[in-house]
Amino acid sequence: MSPTNKVARLHYMANSFRMLTAGDHVVCAVTAQAIPLEELRYWSVVKQEPYVSAEASARAALAKG
After folding, report:
1. What number is the average pLDDT over the span 55-61?
2. Could you tell me which of 11, 26, 30, 37 has the fewest CB atoms within 10 Å of its CB?
3. Please, what's the b/e burial string for 16-55 (b: 16 or more CB within 10 A of its CB; e: otherwise)?
4. pLDDT in tens, 3-52
5. How far apart are CA 60 and CA 30, in angstroms?
6. Quick one: residue 62, left, alpha or beta (phi over 0 = left, psi -120 to 50 = alpha)?
7. Contacts (Cβ under 8 Å, ≥6 apart) of 15
8. Dist CA 5 CA 43 (whole Å)
């Protein structure tokens, strides 16, 4: 059972992620939208940040920094 309405802390790997702190969602690094863990499909291994969509992932990749 995962905590409800709690942000999870994850370690993002190439094909999966590992939960460091239990929670039921993460927050998109680009849009600040909550992403339920069961819907999480996009993230950056290098930046260690999640994205709500492929578009948000592309925007982050094109951004400087």
Report:
1. 96
2. 11
3. ebeeeeebbbbebbbeeeebeeeebebbeeeeebbbbeee
4. 689 999 999 999 999 999 999 999 999 999 999 999 999 999 999 999 99
5. 7
6. alpha
7. none
8. 20
Query: How is residue 59 written in tokens?
Result: 């925007």
Per-residue tokens: 48: 């260690």
What SS3 state is found at 7? strand
Q: The whole model's pTM is what?
A: 0.89
CB contact at 8 A, 9 and 31: no
DSSP 26-42: EE-TTT--EEEGGG--E
